[in-house]
Design a protein that fits this description.
By secondary structure, this protein is mainly α. The protein folds into two domains: 1-43, no CATH class; 76-116. The chain has three helices and two strands. Strands 1-2 form a two-stranded antiparallel ribbon. The model has no long low-confidence stretch (mean pLDDT 83).
Length: 117
């Protein structure tokens, strides 16, 4: 099986061994640089990863100026909205706590009755 290579592996970019290629496939792979003149696969060169260009660091003063500028853009809730949302959260908290307590009590009583007899 001299020179027998198969389809190109998409991860290694090298032809897999043990499959026959016709002349057209072999020429195309040699033209692309994936096969050597003897028909053996050539290991692909990995491209060097390009790092991000170094960015100018922000000074602490500039950072706090940007924070202040962003906080000016925030739409703050009115006093009535805060009171209403607080009441909704507190009511939901009380209801869920009561539900969990009731379920805990029912399971506790059922376990006690189960092992009592």
């Amino acid at each position: 099986m001299d020179g027998a290579v198969g389809p190109i592996d998409p991860f290694t970019k090298v032809a897999a061994p043990h499959m026959a290629l016709n002349r057209q496939q072999k020429r195309m792979l040699q033209k692309q640089g994936q096969l050597g003149p003897d028909g053996e696969p050539i290991a692909a060169q990995r491209a060097q990863p390009t790092g991000r260009p170094a960015e100018k660091r922000t000074s602490p003063r500039e950072f706090f100026q940007q924070v202040q500028s962003e906080l000016r853009k925030v739409v703050w809730p009115s006093r009535d909205e805060v009171i209403r949302f607080t009441a909704i959260v507190f009511t939901t908290l009380v209801l869920i706590t009561a539900l969990v307590a009731a379920i805990d009590f029912l399971f506790g009583e059922s376990v006690l009755r189960l092992f009592e007899s």
